[in-house]
Structure formats: structure tokens, C-alpha cells
């Protein structure tokens, strides 16, 4: 996998993925676009959500919605890395099995989500879930 990030102006950068997609990032605290750290957080939420939805569908669960709400703690001084990340999954569907929801959310962070597993090497990763 490859990507390219090109400086536009000020602290704005254009990220281009190998698959041909682009995203603007704003290094000045997210004034005009997501900051790079927000992109990392959204990547963790997106990657883990894929695992949760796929896991539930593979188990023949009638999942209709999944939202990952991410919260973090960061160091106060540079480098301002994440020290803790929590992903709270809100899952909706028809007759969802609570035990399966608990299992797929846990398995995502501990076994499958590439982004979370990378972050977990230096960040305390936790999760919670609810069926709405």
C-alpha cells in the first residue's frame, strides 16, 4: 500500500491514496479540514466498524446500523500522541444477539482491526457497546 501527501499552502495538505482517493488535512488544529490526528481516529473507527458489521452479518444477524463513537486522551506536550482511545459502538438491528455483539466488538480491537492493533502497541485501547 502506498500514499502521497502534498503540501497545498499554510498547514493544508492533500493526501492521495493508492486507490485514487484524496483527502485534505489541516495541520492547524482542523480549522478547514480534519487534522492528521483526527484522520487517525476516524481510521480506527472506520476499520473497527467494518469488522463489527462484517462479523454480525457473517453470524446472520440483521444489523441495520452501526456507529462508532471515539474518545481519546492525549499527551499535553509534544509529541501529542494518543494515550487512550475508547470506541463505543452503537449497533441497531432486529433481534440482535447481545453475546455476538459483545464478541465482535471485542474481537475487532483484539484480533482484526489493523488500525486499532497498530495503535494498541502504544495506546490503551478500550471499547464498549450498546444495542439501540
From TrEMBL:
It holds the Pfam family OsmC. It comes from Vibrio maritimus. It comes from the Bacteria. This is OsmC/Ohr family protein.
